[in-house]
Amino acid sequence: MQRSNGPSASYTLPAAAPWQLLVPDLWVDDLEAIDLDRLGRHGIRCLLVDIDNTLIPWGEPLPDARAYRFVERARRAGLQVVILSNARRGRRAAVAAALGVPAVRSGFKPRRSVFLAAAALVGCRPEQAAVVGDQLWTDVLGGRRAGMFTILVDPLGAEESLLTRAITRPVERAVLRWLARRGRLPAARVQARLAGRRRSVQQGRPGTGRRPG
Questions:
Q1: Is residue 52 part of a domain?
Q2: 79-137 pLDDT, tens per residue?
Q3: How many angstroms separate the CA atoms of 133 and 31, rounded?
Q4: Which of 77, 81, 178, 196 is deepest in the core (most CB within 10 A)?
């Protein structure tokens, strides 16, 4: 993979290993930084999108203008959006209905079957699906286990559930530091996330021919 200049610089990672289930294929600031047309040109047909701190800030009852813009951009690019979240069923249904997109009714990330069911809702095979979320342990791990392209975004805000704040994020921070120390992720990008700063970095999955971007 060639390295390019600027905020969308690409990085070549070492050969595949178990820890790479926690390495996203693409890491960007937020939904607006995703080149949806490029995903489509590389065979992606559907986006499995998390809700809290990915699509809208945690705790917001309904989508905001940013979420509507993202769904509209996806439609113009020929991509179908599916809500895939561990939020309560009523919340998933409300957000999906407001946006006019389907949602997975049951299941819990990172279970592989949940991701496969989400793609199947819109007739997509795993290799045609991209998972979009803000967490390594749910979105990236589950998507990689399902054989899907994974896109990590930085959280929209600091407000999160108690479980996420007390358990998931501390473990995630430790893993990010470990991956950065071993050259598995760009150290500057990890430091920026941990410090709450934002800078887009794109990377391709090693050992595969499908890496949008």
A1: yes
A2: 999 999 998 899 999 999 999 999 998 878 999 999 999 999 999 999 999 999 999 98
A3: 9
A4: 81
Q: Which run of H or E residues covers position 41?
A: helix 36-41
In a domain, 68, yes or no: yes
- Interacting residues of 104 by C-beta distance below 8 A, sequence separation 6+: 82, 83, 84, 85, 92, 114, 117, 118, 121
Which CATH number is 63's domain given?
Answer: 3.40.50.1000
- How many C-beta neighbours within 10 Å does residue 109 have? 24
Q: Tally the domains of the chain.
A: 1
72 contacts 85 by C-beta, under 8 angstroms: no
Enter the tokens of residue 29: 């600031």
For residue 197, the enclosing domain spans 22-202
